[in-house]
Design a protein that fits this description.
single chain; mainly alpha; Alpha-Beta Plaits; DNA polymerase, domain 1; 2 domains; two-stranded antiparallel ribbon; 7 helices; 2 strands
Length: 209
């Protein structure tokens, strides 16, 4: 309930820029054996990934899960749930609304308990900030192609703390590639990204000073 409170609409300018990137939605879905995206109707997979919030079931377990079978009825079930927030969504309100929803769905004589694992707001920076134009120009000069705005879903609470506590707006600029497998067992980072990323930051810092 009220999950989409604080979720901003994607601006027409950003929609047009993302549409111009030539992103292959069909191949993107096909790489994970999907033909149609799950989730909101009327939203492209790229927009879902870069600008929309999510509720994720990270794991479910209960009862007997060993080899073979046992005719047992589990007395407990567990799940790990996480949310990726955007815009001005309130993580604490979402947590409470989620718990209230789960409790409202419980059958008689069943109870639910919850364990917290932290909460942080999304970090949002206005794309109209003049520093963005300088950073885009510096990146474009280093890489030889026009730089683009993207939406990055990630758990980086420190960026929000910089914004709220230090009253400054951080620029999050990354150089990872789609096939780097971030945080996966076979994660990699190309030397080109390392070298040109360092050169990019020299250009960006020079442009901002």
């Amino acid at each position: 309930p009220d999950f989409y409170d604080g979720v901003p609409d994607l601006s027409a300018d950003m929609q047009a820029q993302w549409a111009s990137l030539g992103f292959d939605h069909k191949q993107f879905l096909g790489d994970v054996d999907l033909s149609v995206p799950a989730g909101e109707a009327g939203v492209t997979p790229l927009e879902m990934t870069w600008s929309r919030p999510t509720c994720e079931v990270n794991g479910i377990w209960g009862g007997y899960i060993g080899e073979g079978f046992k005719t047992v009825l589990p007395s407990q079930a567990h799940a790990k749930i996480s949310f990726r927030l955007v815009g001005d969504q309130d993580p604490h309100a979402i947590r409470e609304n989620f718990r209230a929803m789960v409790r409202s769905l419980l059958p008689p004589d069943c109870t639910a308990s919850f364990a917290e694992h932290g909460a942080s707001e999304a970090c949002v920076i206005d794309a109209g900030d003049p520093r963005f134009d300088k950073a885009l120009a510096a990146l474009s000069a280093e890489w030889g192609v026009p730089a683009a705005y993207i939406g990055g879903g990630g758990s980086i609470p420190i960026a929000g703390h910089f914004q709220d506590i230090l009253n400054t707006k951080p620029l999050l600029i990354g150089f990872g590639k789609d096939d780097d497998g971030l945080h996966s067992p076979n994660e990699k980072y190309d030397l080109e990204s390392f070298h040109k990323g360092a050169r990019s930051w020299v250009r960006i810092l020079a442009a901002l000073t």
